[in-house]
Amino acid sequence: MLINNIVYELKTAQTLCGEHEKQTINYLMLTGLNHAKLINFRTSSVQYRFVSTNITPAKRYDFTVIDEQWRNLDESSAWLAETVKSLVNEWGVFLEVSLCYEAIAHFRGGEDNVLTKIKVMDGSRVLGEQKVHTLSSNIAFKITSLTSDDKYYEVQLYHFMRHTLLKAVHWINFNHDKVIFKTLLR
After folding, report:
1. From residue 172, how far is each of 59, 126, 136, 142, 184 by CA, in Å?
2. 119 — pLDDT class (breaks 50, 70, 90)
3. I want to staple 67 with a disulfide (CB 3.0 to 4.6 A). Which of 45, 46, 61, 181 is the partner?
4. What are 125-141's pLDDT values in tens digits?
């Protein structure tokens, strides 16, 4: 609800948690407002939290796209890059990456079309299966919001790829005011 330029997020949850606050901050950013009240009616006494952000709309739209390491391996790769760029141009940055995943799943016809179980192997021995966001049978994508240790995470993505049949992972990282697009090739 929006009353007098304040967002009221109403819940009926077991208890309020960090995810509820993150969702409320997303609403603040999408509306350009700074203050909200998160209210939970399910508990025996009404729970509430005040949620605020100092990230202005101007700051959300002051970002740089870095895409020199991106490779359009096929039409889906180009589609992903253009779709995410379009989303950040419309929404700005500093939002939860789950919104990008949800938008991509929506545009691809549902989560079943982007979330795939792939085999994790040690040589020819199958160790198990892992659900991965994919564009095709051998191209995955990952969206993160890492502000440190991104080199370590990149090493882990390469390590994971070596234990699968994936030939590439498209990695998009939101690092404050930088949106970094990379293609990691096997």
Report:
1. 20, 28, 17, 6, 11
2. very high
3. 181
4. 999 999 999 999 999 99
Whether residues 48 and 68 share a domain: the answer is no
Please provide residue 156's backbone torsions phi and psi, each rounded to the nearest 5 degrees.
-65, -35
What contacts 63, CB < 8 A, 6 or more positions away? 88, 92, 93, 177, 178, 179
Place of tokens 């792939």: 118
Range of the domain at 34: 2-54
pLDDT classification of 154: cutoffs 50, 70, 90: very high
Segments in the chain forming alpha helices (H): 18-31, 57-60, 75-91, 97-107, 150-162
- Cα dihedral sign for 166, 172, 173, 178? positive
CA separation (Å) from 119 to 62, 116, 160? 40, 10, 11
- 29 and 99 belong to one structural domain: no
> Can you tell me the distance from the alpha carbon of 153 to that of 146, in angstroms, rounded to the nearest whole number?
9
The DSSP bridge pattern shows strands 168-175 and 139-144 to be parallel
| Cβ within 8 Å of residue 86, ≥6 positions away | none
Query: With contact defined as beta carbons under 8 Å apart, do 180 and 92 qualify?
Result: no
Residue 64 binned pLDDT confidence (cut-offs 50, 70, 90): very high
